[in-house]
Structures are given as structure tokens and as C-alpha cells.
Amino acid sequence: FIQELSVIHKLSSEVVIVEWNPLPGYDSLANVLKPYKSSDPSAPPVRIITVPPEFHTSVAGDTGQSFFEFLGKNVGSRRARGEFILITNGDIVFNDEVFAFLAKRRIDADSY
User: Fold this and answer.
1) Whole-model pTM?
2) CA dihedral in degrees (29, 35, 36, 42; nearest 10)?
3) pLDDT per residue over 21-38, tens digit each?
4) Among candidates 8, 18, 21, which has minimal Cα distance to 63?
5) Contacts of 100 (CB under 8 A, 6+ apart)
6) What is the distance between the alpha carbons of residues 19 and 35, in angstroms, rounded to a whole number?
7) CB 6, CB 46: distance < 8 Å
8) CA 7/CA 38 separation, integer angstroms
């Protein structure tokens, strides 16, 4: 969906997805999402960054948490290649108007 809206609005972008501490015995996120990747050559690239369980364990300590949302977002934003970064969650759905606004490049570089 993000790829399609980017193509429609000629928005130069990329999609960065972080798979944090993947569960053993399940398909990787890259494999699960492969059928949904756009075949349009003008679609933005999708990069999936996997944070392995070994790293998770090294930062988790005794917390018992299996996922660190904000660390995952930091991993993705640090590896993003764009001038601006839009960090979101999987339950956020963008509409056409959002992409139309982003494509106009009216974002102030001094804003955050």
C-alpha cells in the first residue's frame, strides 16, 4: 500500500521495516512480505532489518520483554537513507492525502 501511494504521488521514498527478535520456528518477515512487494520498478525499495535474538538478549537483561519498540524504531531510523523520516506503527494506515502532502515536499527541515 505504501509502495502504491508512493508511485501514484511520485514520492521518492523507501520503506524500512525492523524485525526485532524473530521467533524461532516461524518464517522471517522478509519471506512473509515477499508476495506483497510491488513489481513496479518505480516503487520505493523495501528494506527489512532483522535484529537477532542474540542482540536482543544482550540489551534485554532481566526485563523479560521480547520486543523493544523504541529500540526497534531507532534501529530503523538510523539506517534510513532519506532526508526525512516518518516513524509509524503497523496499525497506522495512511490515506491518499498524507502522501499527496509529503510529495509536495513542504516539510520544514528545522521541524521535528
Assistant:
1) 0.80
2) 110
3) 888 999 998 899 888 888
4) 21
5) 9
6) 17
7) no
8) 10
